[in-house]
Amino acid sequence: MKTLLLFAALASASAYASDISGTWEAQVDLDAGSGSATFTFKQTGESLTGTYSGTLGEANVTGKLEGRHVEWSFEASMGGESAKIKYSGTLAPDGTISGDCDYGAIGKGNFKATKKSSSGHARLSSPPPYSSRKFTSIVA
Predict the structure, then answer these.
(1) In sequence order, what are the beta bridge partners of 33?
(2) Global pTM?
(3) Are 86 and 105 in contact (CB under 8 A)?
(4) Which CATH superfamily is domain 2-9+21-132 in?
(5) What's the Cα-to-Cα distance from 116 to each of 6, 16, 17, 53, 105, rounded to whole Å?
(6) Most CB contacts within 10 A, which of 2, 41, 121, 137?
(7) How many helices (H) and strands (E) would you count in the chain?
(8) Which residue, among 1, 94, 91, 108, has the nearest Cα to 41 in the 3D structure?
């Protein structure tokens, strides 16, 4: 019976899924200064594709979302050389993404991104109906 209760609790917790597809505005603070970037993501399963638009121009983005952890990157030209720009963050319960970014020679820093939508939040799916029920265990 305890195994069944543990399984039900784990199934409930893992049922929360995130879909970050859409347009996100990011405030970026680097060693060299601050600015903003716009990311448009399309999520398929855990895979992300999309675009970046900002100070470095425009670029294609690839990444992944595993649970609440999200990573993405893109190639940009800086001073005639190509550099890989990397973002790594966590999807917060309020629907924002915050974390660290690495802009190569420009510097490292952090960011906070907010989804542009009517609610302003990432869409989090509802837990299954059984997750709100209380389970009791009868142990003899």
Answers:
(1) 30
(2) 0.73
(3) no
(4) Quinohemoprotein amine dehydrogenase alpha subunit, domain 2 (2.40.128.120)
(5) 37, 21, 19, 14, 30
(6) 41
(7) 1, 10
(8) 91
